[in-house]
Design goal:
CATH topology of the largest domain: FAD/NAD(P)-binding domain
Order of helices and strands: EHEHEEEEEEHEHEHEEEEEEEH
Number of helices: 6
CATH superfamily of the largest domain: FAD/NAD(P)-binding domain
Structural class: alpha/beta
Number of domains: 2
Radius of gyration: 21 Å
C-alpha cells in the first residue's frame, strides 16, 4: 500500500516537510543517503536560526529537527534513492533496500557547493574553510580572509564579509571578474577588499585551523605562500536534481521550477530548499520551503 508522502532528503527543508506532513496526519517516509541535516551538519555553530540567541551546533539542530519529525510520525530510511518514477498517480522510489510507493513526493535533495578539489580543503572544512559567508562570517571578526571566485556570489559574499573581517582578498583565476558591474563597483570601492588576479589556490594549510594557503599565478607559474585565517569558496553550486531531470521543468542552472506551493511541473511532485529555482540558500528559507511543500502535498493527497 502506498504511503501518503515520500520525502527525499533530510536537510532542513526535508525535515521541516516531515514535521508538517506528519503533523497533518500523513503517512510519511523521509529518505537520506548520508548524514541527517545535510550541509548544516558540517557547521559547528549556527547563530542565525530563529529561536537560538546563543547559537546551536549544526548537528544538534539537525537532530532536533529529526526528533520533532519522528514525534509526529515521520519515519526515516537511511538509503540512497537511485530511481524515481510515476504511474497511475503513484510515485515509486527505488534504492538498495527496495522500492517504496507514495501518493506525493517532496524533493529536498539540496545542492552541493562546487569544491576546489585541492589538498587541505576537505580537512579544514568547518575549521577555516567555508562555503557560506552569511553562516560563518561572524567567526572571522577582525581576521584576514580570502574569497575564491569571480562571479556575483563571490562578490556578494566578499562584501558581506567586510562587516566582520579586517581584510578580504578576492582570488580569481582570470584578470577580470564575471560579476555584475554594480557589484564590481562596490567591491573596487571597498577599502577592505583587495584582489589577486590570474591566481588559483593549490593547497590550504594549517594546524587545527587554516593559517596559510599556497597560491599559483596561472600566467607566471609562480607559487606563493599567503598567510590567511579563513578561505571562503564561491565557485558555484551543483544541484542534486539528476534523479528528476526527465520528470520536471528546470531552469538553466538545473534547479527545479516551482509555483508558490512549491509544486513542480509534475503534479504531486514538490521541490523545496536549495534544489528549487529562486532559492537564497539559507536554512530559515529551506525550512519555510519544506513547510510550504508539505502543506501543498497534503492538499494534493486529499484531492486524490
Amino acid at each position: 500500500m502506498a504511503h501518503d508522502i515520500l520525502i527525499l532528503g533530510a536537510g532542513p527543508a526535508g525535515l521541516a516537510a516531515g514535521i508538517y506532513a506528519g503533523r497533518g496526519n500523513m503517512d510519511t517516509v523521509i529518505f537520506e543517503r548520508t548524514a541527517v541535516g545535510g550541509q548544516i551538519s558540517l557547521t559547528n555553530d549556527v547563530e542565525n536560526y530563529p529561536g537560538f540567541p546563543n547559537g546551536v551546533g549544526g548537528q544538534e539542530l539537525a537532530d532536533l529537527f529529526l526528533k520533532q519529525a519522528e514525534k509526529f510520525g515521520a519515519g526515516l530510511v537511511n538509503q540512497a534513492v537511485n530511481e524515481i518514477s510515476k504511474s497511475d498517480h503513484i510515485f515509486r522510489v527505488s534504492g538498495s533496500r527496495g522500492q517504496w510507493e507514495g501518493k506525493s513526493l517532496i524533493f529536498a535533495c539540496g545542492a552541493d557547493p562546487r569544491r576546489l578539489e585541492i589538498p587541505g580543503e576537505k580537512e579544514f572544512t568547518g575549521r577555516g574553510v567555508s562555503y557560506c559567508a552569511t553562516c560563518d562570517g561572524f567567526f572571522f571578526r577582525g581576521k584576514h580572509v580570502m574569497v575564491v571566485g569571480g562571479g556575483d556570489a563571490a562578490l556578494e559574499e566578499g562584501l558581506f564579509l567586510t562587516r566582520f573581517a579586517e581584510t578580504v582578498t578576492i582570488v580569481h583565476r582570470r584578470d577580470r571578474l564575471r560579476a555584475s558591474k554594480i557589484l564590481q563597483n562596490r567591491a573596487f570601492k571597498n577599502e577592505k577588499i583587495s584582489f589577486r588576479w590570474d591566481t588559483v589556490l593549490i593547497q590550504i594549510c594549517g594546524d587545527n585551523t587554516v593559517t596559510y594557503v599556497k597560491a599559483k599565478n596561472v600566467k607566471t607559474e609562480q607559487v606563493e605562500e599567503i598567510p590567511i585565517d579563513g578561505v571562503f569558496v564561491f565557485v558555484g553550486h551543483i544541484p542534486n536534481t539528476g534523479l528528476v531531470k526527465n520528470l520536471v521543468e528546470m531552469d538553466e542552472q538545473g534547479l527545479i521550477r516551482v509555483n508558490e506551493s512549491m509544486q513542480s511541473s509534475l503534479p504531486g511532485l514538490f521541490a523545496c530548499g536549495d534544489c528549487r529555482s529562486g532559492t537564497v540558500r539559507q536554512m530559515v528559507q529551506a525550512a519555510g520551503d519544506g513547510a510550504t511543500a508539505a502543506i501543498g502535498a497534503i492538499k494534493y493527497v486529499d484531492s486524490l
